[in-house]
């Protein structure tokens, strides 16, 4: 922010090179008095408007398209939109990927670095609350560490400062909502389990970076794993339409590139590498991402068959003019079919990984995590459950480390001697810190009891007085279809905001959606400093014992 202010002043202070007649200045975060006074002293006459719009966070997922949501948030912040509704937000991040290291590394424990990043988090969280017009009761999980309590106190103080100075609200009373702050170690088990829902499974097993997945399909067979493009055309179109389709081949691929659906690259062997962006604007992705992989593999082929039936039905009624219109729509048909096939390919790639290794792991993981086997019998010897995974040469070191961690979590720890033997026998000495450094994450499991106001006030204290009666209670069956007025009910109900210090996983994001669906008068919003996958979390845990200058943090 300081550099931006200095750049603004430089543009106006030198009159000979002045670039603008005037400026409208908007801060996405709170502007310190020192910077505000600096602007005032240097170029106040050139400032037409100066305002803090408080949007120092990133909507990651929502119940509306992300681009539309960001625009809506901006319009709201600029007083050009009435409200940001409770149903708009699902997941948010603060985009601080180095927060895990700065908060949990013992090398920074007694430095100002940890306090500094907690202060930044608090200020960003307040901008989220302000955008949602919430002044929630702030709670945290008490425990050996002071991270959650410190952040909660900082957020509470920042909320007080914001609502005392806000020009619209001045002093705003506590709302019905709650903000719960927890450390990353509150539920270690779910972070290392292999998930079988589409989004979590894909991000865990496939090489997805920056929400982009690259696929390699040889020659003309890139559309489907089991069918060539000509076979696909034969099933969708008659001979006449097949000819039209072939003529539009180049045009359609160009269309897909221009609308950002795929990016094609040709490798030396003649294959095509296809990049697909998994985002909110992809309706099919949003519909499928939280479903079990088996349901995805069942539903997408049905969608393809339905598209085929509709196209054939339209063909039978075609006149010359109608054929012309259909030709114009071909890129759109192609785009719809390509999306369906894309997600089918991703699901099949997930299943390929699952069949090769993960299927055997899942049974072991479930037995260790639950403490019971498939028949409901109590697991008497966790080591006997673990050993087959460790002895299987087809499992890589990451999978074995995840299994060892589940064993440790299920037995509430193990002896140093036993841990040393496990590390030596599996030959993971170089990655042993992925296991050992979990001692720096020390908070137990959180449950959905918060929805029904069952959190023990001793374990989950408020930072200030308790807000008005929590009205998030009232469980409903997840099998019931939500009524049309469900969204309106949530606007007048309570919101539970959960913030995880040091990263949130895709399985936890899915859980937030599921709880929202199950409770008609409450909306759960989950957020963190950044998004984690199991592998990324293990790498970050490993880095905790390294000096700061040896840690490389990748942007989100």
Automatic annotation (TrEMBL):
The keyword Cytoplasm does not apply. GO terms for biological process: protein transport; vesicle-mediated transport. SUPFAM superfamilies: Sec1/munc18-like (SM) proteins. The keyword Hydrolase does not apply. Keywords: Protein transport, Transport. It comes from the Eukaryota. Belongs to the STXBP/unc-18/SEC1 family. This is Syntaxin-binding protein 3. The lineage of its organism: Eukaryota, Metazoa, Chordata, Craniata, Vertebrata.
